[in-house]
Structures are given as C-alpha cells and as structure tokens.
Amino acid sequence: MASITHLPSLKQLRYLVALEEHRHFGKAAASCFVSQSTLSAGLKELETALDAELVERNNRTLVFTALGLEVATRARRVLREAEELAELAAKGKEPLSGRLRLGVIPTIAPYLLPKTLPMLRKAYPKLQLYLTEDQTARLLALLEDGTLDLVLLALPYHADNVETLPMFKDGFQLVARKDSPLAQKKVATTADLKDADLLLLAEGHCLREHALAACRLPQADSGFAGASLNTLVEMVAGGLGVTLLPDMAVPMHVPKQGELVARPFDRSGAGRQIGLAWRTTSSRAEEFQEFGAALTKAARSAGIAVG
Predict the structure, then answer these.
(1) Quick one: fold of 169-271?
(2) CA–CA separation, 256 and 108 (whole Å)
(3) Whole-Å CA distances, 144 to 76, 150, 160, 184, 267
(4) What digits encode the pLDDT tens for the residues 119-160?
(5) Into which CATH architecture does domain 90-159+274-301 fall?
(6) pTM over 0.85
(7) CA 148 centroid distance within chain
(8) DSSP helix/strand/coil, 167
C-alpha cells in the first residue's frame, strides 16, 4: 500500500464542500470569505495532494467527477468531526456556551421560542443560538450532514443515527366555529369527527400524521390540505370544516373573544411529544440534555402547557 505524504487540510476540504454545494466558483469563494483565485488554488492543491482530478473545469461549467463527489461527501464528515472535536474541548469550560445551530419545525417555532428564548438567553448569556425553521425530514437531513447540531421536533418520528430526548407532551384541541354543533361539546372525541370535515396540514408535516393517529383515522378526506396552521384556522372560520391544533398553538390562533372555539380532544391523552434530536456520534449529548431541561423549565415558566 502506497504511503500518503500529503494529507488534505481542513481549509481545502472546506473549499471543496462549498464548491459542491454552490456549483459556482464565485459563490463558493464568497461563502468561504476568500477570493475566487484563493479557492481555485486551494482546490488545485487538494487535487495534487490526492493525485486525482475532482472537478472538470472549462470556461462555462464545472462538473464533479465521481471521485470528486465521493470525496466531498467524506469531506463533510471530516469537517463535522473536526467541529465536534473543538466543541468537545470547549464543553468542559462552560455548559451551553458558544455556537449552537438549532433546527425547529414550524408547528413549534412560533409558539414556543418567542416565550422561552429570552429566558434561555438570560440563563446562558454566552450561548450563541442560530435557528433554522423547516419540516422535520429536511431538518434531520441537515442534522445528518453536520449543518445543524440539534433539532427541536415532535415525536414520535423515525430517524436513523439520531438520539432523541422527549421533553413534554403537547395535546390536541378541536377547533370549530361557535355555530358548529361541535362547539357545544366540553370535550371532543374521535366519534365527534365521524361526519365532520377535518382540515389538516399537507403531506410532509409531521403534525398531520400525529393528528390522524390521535383520531385513529387513516386519512383526512375534506379535500383541503393547508400549508400552515394559520391557513387551517382561517378555513375553519370560513365554515369549511374543523381542525385539530396543538395545545401550544391555541392561544395564538383561537382568542377567547372570537368566532372560533377550542375544545380539548380526549382519546387517552392523545398528543405529540416535544423533544430534541441529535446525532448519535455527537460529543455534546450531555449539553443537549441540559438544554432540553432548561427549555422545558422556560416553557413551564412562560405558562405553556407542559404535559
């Protein structure tokens, strides 16, 4: 086996990953805060060190070779592990300090974060929190490739190579117009939905699956699927049906003085678990558990229903 005398540097690997993401030398250089000539030279040095062509270049386009794509994939892992190495060294200095890249799903972010983040900032003033809001599948993909450190999501949700921490339960409430027969119920049940038009989020939102599981329904057949909880509530207000909202979203979307009412949905405590997910290989599990405990405490202090 031939010996390797020149190993790639982290800087060279970062240049390669940036180019694979942007597929444009100028944009990749800008994302790395270097000139285009510096990035191009770094990539040339990487190819020389590996004695292999990674990118085919001409005046108009660039094309990654098959080896180049494989090297870029592995380079992401190397960069992620290098970051985790630095985080491991910093962990012993002070908990929850420095950068934390947190992904949050849209059915949690606007209802939980505005009330809790000020408390977390006060408790951990050196924590630098960077937020990304998206659907669960895309957030977990970003977690896997190292773009995110931690994801705040609703459980259960199947994912490989992640460790999860359930924090608290978020129940469901049935939302209907005041003139609906269902508005007269003190507690709504699955039987009440038998003849109702149930409006839910579109495919891809985990809240849809959690709501259907709570109702023991295979699917919602109202013919409408919303892109946001706000849209669902507006559709209910327009008389198109009823919907299920998580407890934490009800105060924002169903004011006490309005044309809609919310009733607890009771099916053996049906709801979703709010929790955290991180890579099983992360060295920060203990820190993330502390973050989960602090977030739960802040939610309770903010008056958010924490089951």
Answers:
(1) D-Maltodextrin-Binding Protein; domain 2 (3.40.190)
(2) 21
(3) 10, 10, 9, 47, 35
(4) 999 999 989 999 999 999 999 999 988 889 999 999 888 888
(5) 3-Layer(aba) Sandwich (3.40)
(6) no
(7) 9
(8) strand
